[in-house]
Specification:
The protein is an alpha+beta fold. The protein has three helices and seven strands. It has helices spanning 23-40, 56-64, 106-109, and strands at 73-82, 88-97, 110-116, 119-120, 144-152, 159-165, 173-179. The longest helix has 18 residues, at 23-40.
Length: 182
């Protein structure tokens, strides 16, 4: 029998794809481009949060900057009071409007915080009718509500109040006010 010549065929590895043709690279480039577009359009702007805390100039600048929100809010008066233990408290009046599509309440829609010396104050419970606790009542679209919230004071230093949307993609302050207790 004649022997057949079997030639060895060397298997050559397929040429490697260039980096720019690999799927993971294309996805990475897409995310980078989206990030650049977001930053360029102001989506990544964090300059408003780097302002020095509560100077009168920064408060004026915040008032001039119009914040787009479904819950326009103003900070009204603030008065000293006593909590149920007889300790000093501070009652702040807020007026807000629900411009969202659903009924909601102040506590769900907004985050209203008070600070003394840069430290957040705890909420206080008053024994009198100084606080109406309406912040838990739902408000329909287009309706306004006045809410009073009490905070426990730690000393006689100024009280700074800030209101932001509770759930938001940005951290913009909707309303703010500084109260002097002296």
């Amino acid at each position: 029998m004649p022997e057949q010549n079997m030639q060895e065929v060397a298997v050559q590895p397929a040429p490697k794809k260039p980096l720019y043709k690999k799927p993971w690279f294309i996805i990475l480039v897409v995310f980078i481009v989206i990030g650049i577009i977001a930053v360029a359009s102001g989506g990544g702007d964090s300059s408003s949060s780097s302002a020095s805390p509560s100077t009168s100039a920064s408060a004026e600048a915040a008032k001039e900057k119009e914040v787009k929100t479904d819950y326009p809010t103003t900070v009204g008066e603030g008065v000293k009071a006593k909590d149920y233990e007889g300790k000093d408290a501070f009652v702040v009046t807020y007026e807000w409007t629900n411009n969202s599509n659903e009924a909601t309440n102040f506590e769900v829609a907004l985050s209203a915080k008070a600070y003394q010396n840069g430290v957040e104050l705890e909420k206080a419970i008053l024994s009198s009718d100084d606080v109406n606790y309406y912040e838990f009542k739902d408000v329909k679209n287009g309706a306004k509500q006045t809410v009073k919230v009490a905070y426990k004071l730690t000393d006689d230093s100024d009280v700074e109040v800030e209101v932001k949307e509770f759930i938001s993609l940005n951290n913009d302050v909707i309303a703010s006010k500084k109260f002097s207790l002296k």
